[in-house]
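Hi R.,

Here's the input for the adenosine-5'-triphosphate complex you asked about:
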Amino acid sequence: MDTLVIKCGGSIINELSESFFTSIKELQSRGYQIVFVHGGGPDINSMLEKFEIEPVFEDGLRKTTTDVLEVVELMLAGKSNRCLVHKLEEHGIKAVGLNGSDGGILTGEFIDKEKLGAVGEIHQVDTELLELFFDKGFCPVLTPISSTEDGNKLNVNADMAAGSVAKALSAAMCLFVTDVKGVMKNHQVIEKLTESETQDLITDGSIYGGMIPKVKTALSVLNKGVEEVMIVSGKEIFYEDGQFIGTKFLQKEGVFK
Ligand SMILES: Nc1ncnc2c1ncn2[C@@H]1O[C@H](COP(=O)(O)OP(=O)(O)OP(=O)(O)O)[C@@H](O)[C@H]1O
Ligand SMILES: [Mg+2]
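And here is the predicted structure with adenosine-5'-triphosphate in place:
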């Protein structure tokens, strides 16, 4: 069965359109097994504000002190995950919410403890556990929280976590669902992007903030056995007549699928 990894932005969980759920059901009926990985940026920021902690980002990655990590896990696992699972269930999509670190699904390492604190990258994904849920007809819904071999919790950028899951499952497709229609330049969605075009857009500042880890992950999974990678909107129709609408990443310069 083909696997679809859907990364749902924290920016969009509360605003997912009806057509999002219709598309998910259509994709399931076309034979895709689906795993969700989600972020929780706005939920995390609003709780940090209550604790009077200022969010700090480095190239789109959230600097994660011990206090921040506690809030990150609280909001991802206790709020964003609950919300997404609930919405899926409400629409008749069987879903089970899990913290990424549960059962050792996502194992990782610190990226740069000094500069970023407890920010991690995934080194291993236990796909066996995910397959178990697929076999029973459930969509696993994962937070991007991971843990090190020796049990330290890590805050992983949700785009990067989704990319690792997609690679580990050799997914047919990895979709990044966010609050914009795709990668934009001068208010226009760019339909197809190569690696060098993407790099140019980062250099000229057209791609910034949270879009940086998203496009970097998109390109890195494409070269690692994932057939198709797209950034699409969760607010608008992203799947119609078997076609996806958004920004598609291309494996090689000039190769149009
Ligand atoms: N060239 C670009 N085109 C479109 N959006 C861009 C671009 N450059 C930066 N962005 C910003 O990236 C944002 C999407 O990334 P962001 O990290 O905020 O959301 P997310 O990844 O969907 O949510 P979360 O981080 O909570 O999982 C957009 O809302 C937009 O502000
Ligand atoms: Mg993001």
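One thing worth noting: The chain has one domain: 3-249.

Cheers,
M.
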